Amino acid sequence: MKNIADNLQTLQKQEAEFARTHKSDTDDELIAYLVKCSKELGRCPKKEDIIGHTYLKQRFGPWPRILERAGLKEKSQKRLEKEQKMNWTENSKAVINHGSLNRINQLAEKKLKKEFKKPERIKSEAEFAQKHSADTDAELYEYLKQLKAKHGKRLNPTNTIGYTYLVKRLGAWNEVMRQISMDLKNENERIETT
Q: Rounded distance, CA 52 to CA 164, Å?
């Protein structure tokens, strides 16, 4: 029983050390690490085979999605059908329930695409990505909080330099904005109570 407890404690220490060591790694670096481990094993790795699997799951989601992203596993037919059904259902609901809203969204998307094709925007997005590639997610969130405080309103893709890099690193824009709003609200509550 003691050996099991010792092994568990050792694994937990390894996982924590991996998370500390690799927290500033880019997504591509972490995926490359997983591919390297797979080659060393000579097969598709199980999560138990990989030191740092808990951190990888925290960054990328469920283990099968991580393997798919790394190109180590094909999407199952069931998963492909589910994704197609979800896309069809969402698109159908939008057309049926919000036909005019769809047109508004299309126009907004067209305007956004036009904005991101401007040479000065392409340059500023590339400069932002280069400058902040070593930043941690927490530092990127802090940058967005400061930007939101400066603007005094919700950030959107057109008024946020680095939008494309931030979405790539942090995920869906609406979720990022929701998280920032909650963090700012919590900070304001702490300030008011002191």
A: 27
For residue 110, give its domain range.
Answer: 76-117
Query: Are 176 and 166 a contacting pair, CB within 8 Å?
Result: yes
82 and 106 in a single domain? The answer is: yes
Q: What is the Cα–Cα distance from 52 to 12, expressed in whole angstroms?
A: 10
Per-residue pLDDT of the chain (194 residues; tens, 9 = 90+): 566 666 778 888 888 888 888 888 888 898 899 899 889 989 989 988 888 888 888 888 888 888 888 888 887 788 778 777 776 665 555 555 555 556 666 766 776 666 667 788 788 888 888 898 888 888 888 888 888 888 777 777 777 888 888 888 888 878 888 887 776 666 655 555 55
DSSP 63-115: HHHHHHHTTSSPPPHHHHHHHHHHHHHHHHHHHHH-HHHHHHHHHHHHHHHHH
* Overall domain count for the chain: 3
Whether residues 193 and 140 fall in one domain: yes
CA–CA gap between residue 133 and residue 139 (Å, rounded): 11
Backbone φ, ψ for residue 30 (5° rounding): -70, -40
Backbone angles phi, psi at 160, to 5 degrees: -125, 105
State how far the Cα of 75 lies from the Cα of 64, in Å rounded to an integer.
8
* Number of Cβ within a 10 Å radius of residue 15: 16
